[in-house]
């Protein structure tokens, strides 16, 4: 390079150019050997640069093994799968696998891309190929936008090796996906089992509480308590009906007592006289004497001896009849006098009617008292058990809810086993690993292009160096005055 200090100021361009030729050429072109030296110098520099460029390139081209690329394509179907089963008496169990692209926060294609390039996939593939991990290149994975396609490329020194490597990557990938799915199902099943155990404990605790309350109250369910309340209400209606019937029967018996002038007990004893022959004979004799007295009374006056005799005989017969009635029945005289059949006529049917109605009254009274006692006893018991019955209903409702939740959890846990694509979507092989027919020489071509380009630049630089004086002369000739370089 020519510095300004090397060239003093000149008065004309001719003087300046003459001095410049001496500095640049360090000799004159007309001197012997000048051109040969210059050619030799430029040729040496050119060969050095060409050697620096092409020796590494030729070494790479000579030592780089041939490369073949095997391709394959995977696809993720976009639709989900759902299933629902209705179980009578238990509930509904549903299974649903969402679409692989339903979530905006997670891309399954990106997940599978990372998995295809993961170290454990390469380790498994290297093991299956019986080679070391360091000799197995990482696959090139390309995602096709707006689709579920995954394009995978794998290289090798032969078409078969490239295809086998790609196949090994594919096998290791599917094995790992299945392992991840199995682990996911296992984790979910463990969570479901823990939840089912909690639900089962809840069901057992509620069932024990129901059993304890049933033992204490004697009720199986709230419906049983309601039925007993209904039965007791019906019993109350019967009690009211019996009371009205009893009051009616009591009034009827009281009227018959008043009409006969006898109590039911007295009427019962009076009926015993109709089976006593002595009393019946006395009654027949009393009837005859009464007839005779009536006949004599119609014929004679009150002081006539016949009439007085008839009156005396009748009185004696009547006393004998009363004494016999008192002896048979044990009734007092005033009551026994009323039993004189000859005096009051035959009242057997009335007495029997009185006794029958009295018996019916006594039966109704006993039935009423017993039914009323049972009604009041049951009423008091049901009033005390009402709170327990309500609590039993609540516990049974809690038990039904707990049982339904427990059964639903079991059904959901069983149905979820079919949902294997919930966390890791279904992936299918759209294009199997290919067997490349031609090698991939893209890097060799690039190396050749780089070598030729660098060589061209070196030649351009040397050419410019060769004609530099002409260029400088031309550039200086454009100026009017002397110029310092």
From TrEMBL:
Keyword Membrane: yes
Molecular function in Gene Ontology: protein tyrosine kinase activity
Keyword Transmembrane on entry: yes
Record-annotated membrane-spanning stretches: 42-62, 446-467
Alphabetized UniProt keyword annotations: Coiled coil, Membrane, Transmembrane, Transmembrane helix
A single GO cellular-component term on record: plasma membrane
Coiled-coil ranges per UniProt: 182-216, 354-395
InterPro entries: Bact_polysacc_biosynth/exp (IPR050445)
Top-rank lineage group of the source organism: Bacteria
Name this protein carries in UniProt: Capsule polysaccharide export protein
